[in-house]
Amino acid sequence: MQPMDNLMQLAELRAPQVRDVRANLAGELVVPGDPSWDEARLAWHLAVDQRPEAVAIPENLHDVIEIVLWAREEGFRVAPQGTGHNAPALGDLAGTVLLKTHRMRGVAIDPVSRTARAEAGAIWIDVVKAAAEHGLAALAGSSPDVGVVGYTLGGGLSWLARKHGIGANQVTAIELVTADGEFRRVDRENEPDLFWALRGGGGAFGVVTAIEFNLFPITEVYAGHLFFPVERAGEVLRAWRDWTETVPDEITSVGRILQLPPIEEIPEPLRGNSFAVLQAIYSGDDFDEARRLVDELRALGPAMDTFDVMPVEGLSHLHMDPEEPVAGIADGSTLAELDDETIDAFVAAVVGTPILAAEVRHLGGAVGRARAEHGAVASFEAPYLAFAVGLIPVPELRDPLAAAVHGFVERLEPWLHGHTYMNFAEGRRDARTLWTEAAHHRLKRIKAQVDPDNLIRSNHPLG
Ligand SMILES: Cc1cc2nc3c(=O)[nH]c(=O)nc-3n(C[C@H](O)[C@H](O)[C@H](O)COP(=O)(O)OP(=O)(O)OC[C@H]3O[C@@H](n4cnc5c(N)ncnc54)[C@H](O)[C@@H]3O)c2cc1C
Fold first, then answer.
1. What are 406-411's contacts with CB under 8 Å, separation 24+?
2. Would you tell me how many other CB atoms lie within 10 Å of the CB of residue 269?
3. What is the mean pLDDT of the chain?
4. Which of 74, 198, 292, 351 is the most buried (most CB within 10 A)?
5. pLDDT tens digit string along 357-381?
6. CA 301 to centroid of ligand 1, rounded, Å
7. Ligand 1 in contact with 86 (CB < 6 A)?
8. From the CB of 148, is ligand 1 less than 6 Å away?
């Protein structure tokens, strides 16, 4: 029997219970055989074929509670999902209800306390736009449609990270429904252990329904790219690496290789060409100082220079990430060092392969400084992070791309740091590499207290 037949038979057996829970929901419960089944089970990562027992699409907190209680009664597990940007890591969804939060997308800004409140399904552009209206900026990721909650629970590396640290450590309160169906609001005073766990421990502790976090009074940044012919990648990345060792925390930057396909969506002169690219963001007040700092890179003689003062909300598009769901494969990890050999290995692992974009992000600064009040991922010891991504325009390209992305991580193996960053890990990792040993033990203890039956499934389980 095919897996889909199996699922449909299960759905028929459970039809009365499905009817009952549907009657209690403002949202939807979609099961195999329903007309919207194939649409409901899609992830942002279109190449991931998600086959859960059912897809629940809550409209509100009450729905989330109903779904959790129903899944528990039926003997299913629950996997919360915002957008599915990290769906590849989730794995086989048999026996699991996929709880998709995309209809709970409300955002509210409090300009006085300089905080934002985002519901479970909000994506970064929702917050970035709303905050900008008040002259405020969030620690948003490179992509406008990454989910605020998934990103923040895993850590959250923004273009302001070296100045303000990872997103998880700017969270002020989290609301969630735990495996027992109970609604909890956790912060520093209320259930501080659970509050600690959620800030970097990932999505294993409950279904988050809303999250609140600090914003920063930033309206403009100095940011852009320098493009060089890809043949200069080794030289340019070495010069950039040396530069990163000197810049202040106001600068967060990336060294990249872009190999752009000859497609209409990509403007000339980028279309069909390959480049070594240096991207940097300066988030301080002194733009003259920023220009002077970037001049040091300009001395390399780029073919194109896009640096300028720009509204902070422009950072959501700066990295040129895909802004719609795509079929692709990606993976990455943190680097313990970036010596000349690492750079040569990085370039050799990318140039001429089907990888579309590969990058090294500079960490350090506030990302590297742990504080007592921080959560489960207090800081990153690793000074850099490497990541590669490619698209699958036709099915025949899947295997070569998978081999290239896999080969990318393998080639960098000698320089990988022992700590893996869960948000940039698109495959399953040994849980012991995701946190320090002490944090991992504490997370497992908290999980056992709050979800002893392991009802809630996350993309990167605690092991
Ligand atoms: C194009 C692209 C750009 C990216 N840029 C950045 C970047 O600049 N910086 C960075 O740090 N990361 C970045 N990422 C990685 C991204 O942060 C992770 O993929 C993150 O997990 C995405 O969260 P999501 O909610 O969008 O994805 P999802 O796949 O929906 O969620 C990931 C996991 O988060 C948990 N989760 C989500 N919602 C809930 C909830 N309501 N309750 C409980 N758990 C929940 C679940 O365990 C889920 O499996 C990028 C990824 C892509 C594909």
1. 406/331, 407/349, 407/353, 408/331, 408/349, 408/350, 408/353, 408/355, 408/358, 409/331, 409/332, 409/333, 411/345, 411/346, 411/348, 411/349
2. 11
3. 95
4. 198
5. 999 999 999 999 999 999 999 999 9
6. 37
7. yes
8. no
CA distance 3 to 241: 50
The whole-model pTM stands at 0.96
**Residue to substitute in 65, 151, 356 for testing ligand 1 pocket (most ligand atoms within 8 angstroms of CB):** 151
Atom of ligand 1 nearest to the CA of 156: 11
Ligand 1 pocket mutation pick from 146, 315, 355, 447 by most atoms within 8 angstroms of CB? 146
Asked whether 97 lines ligand 1 (CB < 6 A), one says: no
Using the atom order of ligand 1, give the atom closest to the CA of residue 157. 11
At 232-258, the pLDDT tens digits run 999 999 999 999 999 999 999 999 999
What angle do helix axes 233-244 and 340-350 make, rounded to 10 degrees?
140
Q: Are strands 183-186 and 251-259 parallel, antiparallel or unpaired?
A: unpaired
Which phi and psi angles does 30 have, rounded to 5°? -110, 130
